[in-house]
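Section 3.1: Structural characterization of target chains.
Under the original work plan, the team committed to producing a structural model for every single-chain target entering the pipeline before any wet-lab resources were allocated. The record below documents one such target. The sequence was received from the expression subgroup and is listed exactly as submitted; it comprises 253 residues.
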Amino acid sequence: MNIISGLLKVCLLILMPLASVAAHAETAKIAIASNFTGTSLELQSVFEGQTEHRLLLSFGSTGKLTTQILYGAPYDAFLAADITHPKKIVDEGLADKDKMFTYAIGELVLFNHAGTLATTQSEIISQLHASDRIAIANPVSAPYGKAAKQTLQSLEVWKTLGSKIVQGGNIAQTYQFVITGNVDMGFVAKSQIIHNQSGASWRPPNGSYTPLKQAAVLLKSNEGNKAAIDFLEFLKSNVAREIIIRNGYGVEE
């Protein structure tokens, strides 16, 4: 009996720390801009492996996710594709301004999946005019779409291209338009094509669009959620920053 009793005590000592970890593990619902889909899945895998927390990720255009949050969607944190929409959530009293931070800086590129692209701006303008259809994300709801519109305006072709422009509901759908050949070319996130082995891209000149500083906020409705708090802190770590940079984004110093 003493041997059995001793074994039971040993088993309890082993299981107690595991039970403690499980007791502190939580689940967080994170709303994420669609341009950050692939990167966030990689970050999720590393974070969950390190913490025992679980993340439920929901993707969409920043504008639509913001509307959902303003109408009470039960998210714990929001990773937007800009700063404007998180500020709007802060202004509505749904998030704390002091806890908002830039987790990534996006870059817009013109992408042609099947063909080639010129290198000079004048030649790019000629290619845009020669194209039948050009994809951008919705400028109203998607920050990358707004940046694409600003770029076309800076090239002085926004009005002349007119009906050639096809709008995706978000940057993920816009990328699908291009990659499937439904359009000749399109403005997408650099992060979406950085690992592509085919296709050609062109980077708009500096100043063509408002910098795509992507901000994250912890929502007040569930600000005590440990998984959400820890995930946002994880985004600031060197491990997370390296993943973000490797996937085509910049980070603030």
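Residues 2-24 form the longest helix (23 residues).
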